Amino acid sequence: MTVRARATLGASAVVAIALAIASLALLGLLDANLLHNAESDAEAQATAVAQLADTETLDPLLTPTHGADFLQVVTADGQVLTSSQNLLGRPPVATDRPTVPGVVRTTWDTGPLGRGNRQRVVEVTTRTRAGLVTVYAGTSLRDADAADSTTAAALAVGGPLLLLTVAWVTWWVTGRALRPVEAIRAEVAEISDRDLHRRVSVPRTHDEIARLAVTMNSTLDRLESSGQRQRQFIADASHELRSPIAVLRTQLEVALAVDDPALRPELISGALEDTDRLQQLAADLLLLARIDSAEPVPSNELDLTELVEEAIGQRRGDPLPIRAQLAPGVAVTGSGLWLTRVVTNLLDNAQRFAAREVAVLLRPAEDGRAAVLEVRDDGPGIPAADRERVFERFTRLDDARSRDHGGSGLGLAIARDLAAHHGGTLTAEPADQGARLVVRLPLAVPRPRAAVAR
Fold first, then answer.
1. Which residues is 194 bridged to in the sheet?
2. Beta strands in 189-319 (DSSP E)
3. What confidence score (pLDDT) does residue 112 get?
4. SS3 content of the chain, % helix, strand, coil (to 5)
5. Which residue from 62, 298, 306, 321 lies 20 to 30 Å from 331 (Cα-Cα)?
6. Which residues pair with 119 in a beta bridge?
7. Helices (DSSP H) in 258-322: which residue ranges?
8. Of the candidate ranges 37-51, 54-68, 122-136, 367-381, the one whose mean pLDDT is the lowest
């Protein structure tokens, strides 16, 4: 069932239940009120006749007034003393007579007059000089029955009409409310991967539908941006792969064409260098693909100090020294392999452009919530205008940061993506000399002592 049908069915069911309860309550209250009125009139008439019997001033023929249809006065031994015209010559109305004074109210489906409508009878027993005397005053409930029948017929006709009206109004209002949603759905369905620039129209109502349209446009913005990044990435990767492949093919063709055995080792060595470059580039591209696929980060607690020390220790043979100032016991959560790659990429970048040395600093942040890792070099530095652009994929700055230094333009981009994947940041910040790259990673939450013991 559609939303429109479910809303209509739900509203109709609720109204139907409410109508049924209200109808039953109305009929019950109406019948009770009419019955009470008839009973009050009959009781007043019977009480008046009982007072006459008490004073022994009963008329031989009683005349019912408004609110009573018949009257009858009966002694304790069943003798009819007097009655109204319509009960002359008839036996007592009731065979079981009260034995004590009081008032008894009874409803009969068929009264002593033999008519087909209900009758309400009130028995008032009083004590006279001759003994107990019971006065029967009866009133017909034909008006109450007629009112009940009329009301029931009106409800039987009006209830379904009201229910149909509610169903039609709900169907119409729901359709009007869902019409913008259907328009947004149809417009989004027409948008393909080749026209992600299109956007849905936002209603001016400032309601949930307008917010839905804004959300859809935001989603389309992200899809378009993702598509553009993907196309740009493919184009840049194709451009980066084309050059080493072309050089490798040229070297292999020259090696195949040259007959001089002395030149072949040099050509083969150059081909191996280009092959290593291709292998490294392919590995970087695969790592970027894993990062873009939002692969979950392992929740392993790591000692970042030891991890940085190991990364520096593997570079003891590098021509430029690394000066390290590492705070002990800095713990973070994440993947040791990926965080090692972050440190390695930053050290590679620093050593590629440093003049004399590279400095590495690790400390907790002042607020105690993050670990701060700084990698500095004394090279040409990064211009202020390029401090964000340097983290873009396949980006090489002019002059010092060119392809001649052997980089593919992916090192800093991979390092920033990995830092962001761990909930951290990587920024290029101002420095007095050279480049200053700062990584901030969330510190690991200390575990309870019981958990550590286990």
1. none
2. 300-303
3. 63
4. 50, 20, 30
5. 321
6. 108, 140
7. 264-292, 304-313
8. 54-68
